[in-house]
Recover the amino acids of this structure.
């Protein structure tokens, strides 16, 4: 078993994305946009359907890996 210290990590403290008032689903799509086919973003904060979840983070990694492999 591998256990992380994510909840005590100084830069996150177990944080995940939070859709505040005024946030739209398209905001999560914007966070997922690549930059010039050279810089790609993955993480639960880039998943419109599964934001704030572990499987959203995983699926976003698969999505970006597919983008890269199709270059």
């Amino acid at each position: 078993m591998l256990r992380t210290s994510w909840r005590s990590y100084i830069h996150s403290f177990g944080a995940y994305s939070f859709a505040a008032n005024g946030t739209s689903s398209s905001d999560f799509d914007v966070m997922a946009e690549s930059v010039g086919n050279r810089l790609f973003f993955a993480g639960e904060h880039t998943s419109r359907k599964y934001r704030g979840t572990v499987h959203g983070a995983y699926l976003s990694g698969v999505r970006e890996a597919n983008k890269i492999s199709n270059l």
Remarks:
- The chain is about 30% helix and 0% strand.
